[in-house]
């Protein structure tokens, strides 16, 4: 039985919902935010590579790219060797959205823990740090203790 009742996941979903709602006010949808994140981390990535990473149809990615270019979040540059290919880059507007998303998440978590006393907060943060390190180590090793389906 799951003693945590998946509460970490449930809290993360609530935080994501808050961020999605707030980001929508800036003109960025949830799927677009994921795409912008990938492009920011991999400047010059092609739409086909984005489609592969997001497990999405290339036509859907092409539509999203056009939308994000028109909104000023991305710029698209043709490949110098093959004019049919293009490369995607984040704009300053995209970088500002990233900072906003980070600030929104931080604000949500600060609000969430504000009623904990000092001792509760210290215990919680220590435990959370241990859990994060354990999950990150497992992830970097390819999830060997969780089976191949993970």
Model description:
The protein has 150 residues and is mainly alpha-helical. The protein has one domain: Orthogonal Bundle (Arc Repressor Mutant, subunit A), CATH 1.10.10. Helix content is 65%, strand content 7%. The protein is built from 6 helices and 2 strands, in the order ααααββαα. It has a two-stranded antiparallel sheet with strand order 1-2. Helix 1 (7-24) crosses helix 5 and helix 3 crosses helix 4 (58-71). The protein starts with 6 loop residues before the first helix and ends in a 10-residue tail after the last helix.
Features:
6 helices; Arc Repressor Mutant, subunit A; 150 residues; two-stranded antiparallel sheet; mainly alpha; 7% strand; single chain; globular
Can you describe this structure in just a few lines?
By secondary structure, the protein is mainly alpha-helical.
Q: In total, how many domains does the architecture comprise?
A: 1
- CATH homologous superfamily name? Winged helix-like DNA-binding domain superfamily/Winged helix DNA-binding domain
Query: pLDDT below 50 for ≥5 consecutive residues: which ranges?
Result: none
Order of helices and strands: HHHHEEHH
Reconstruct the topology from this structure.
Elements: H1 7-24, H2 30-41, H3 47-54, H4 58-71, E1 74-78, E2 86-90, H5 92-113, H6 118-140
Antiparallel strand pairs: 1-2
